[in-house]
Design goal:
This protein has four helices and nine strands. By secondary structure, the chain is an alpha/beta fold. It has a single domain, classed as Rossmann fold. A six-stranded mixed beta sheet has the order 4-3-2-5-6-7. Strands 1-9-8 form a three-stranded antiparallel beta sheet. Helix 3 links the parallel strand 2 and strand 3. The two termini are 17 Å apart. It binds guanosine-5'-monophosphate (5GP).
């Protein structure tokens, strides 16, 4: 897609949550996460690439000792879990005995996070929690994670971009959560 077409996508998109609303949602998530994890020396794993921006904003609001690392994985096609993950990067930090917080951009079918959680448990994590910037409540598939522990925004079942979420690998930098026109 050329630049004009990409700019048209943003101009025509519907803004579901503007910057102020996204930041308020991240503030609220940060408060609850701090209450729950402050004393647990958590290992926070950002699920790349979509969670890059939400994780950066969230982590800057957590004022207690924690470590961070990242995972980059996608599912092979189909409704598969566990070993069916295609790994692009695994965390270097050992997970054994750690309280893990996974941060992802969106909970859609829930299959990717279910598979990453299963892998964290295999590595011996003491607990695994999940934080997502957005959730689509009506999109879950069998075997998918039903509910995240911490949710920023509940959005309609549409294709969205911005704040880390991509539109054809562009507009992860869009300053809001936008629904693509017609999708
Ligand atoms: P799952 O379907 O396994 O819950 O979601 C896997 C991944 O699909 C998400 O982490 C996200 O990267 C991508 N995804 C799901 N819904 C959307 C969407 O509406 N917009 C974008 N850009 N990505 C999505």
């Amino acid at each position: 897609m050329n630049r004009e077409a990409l700019e048209r996508v943003l101009a025509e998109a519907e803004c579901l949550a503007d910057e102020a609303r996204v930041l308020a949602a991240i503030d609220a998530m940060g408060h609850v996460i701090a209450q729950d994890l402050r004393e647990l020396n958590p290992l926070v794993l950002t699920v790349m690439t979509g969670a890059l921006i939400p994780a950066g904003l969230l982590l800057a609001r957590l004022h207690f000792p924690l470590q961070m690392d990242y995972v980059h994985a996608s599912r092979y096609g189909g409704a598969t879990i566990g070993s069916e993950l295609r790994w692009l990067a695994k965390p270097r930090t050992p997970l054994a005995g750690r309280h893990v917080l996974l941060i992802d951009d969106i909970l859609d079918t829930g299959l990717t996070l279910a598979a990453i959680i299963a892998w964290c448990r295999e590595q011996g994590a003491a607990s695994v929690r999940t934080a997502v910037l957005c959730e689509k409540p009506d999109a879950r598939q069998p075997g998918g994670l039903a509910k995240a522990d911490y949710v920023g925004l509940t959005i309609p079942n549409r294709y969205v971009f911005g704040y880390g979420l991509d539109y054809q690998e562009y507009w992860r930098n869009a300053p809001g959560i936008y629904a693509v026109k017609g999708l």
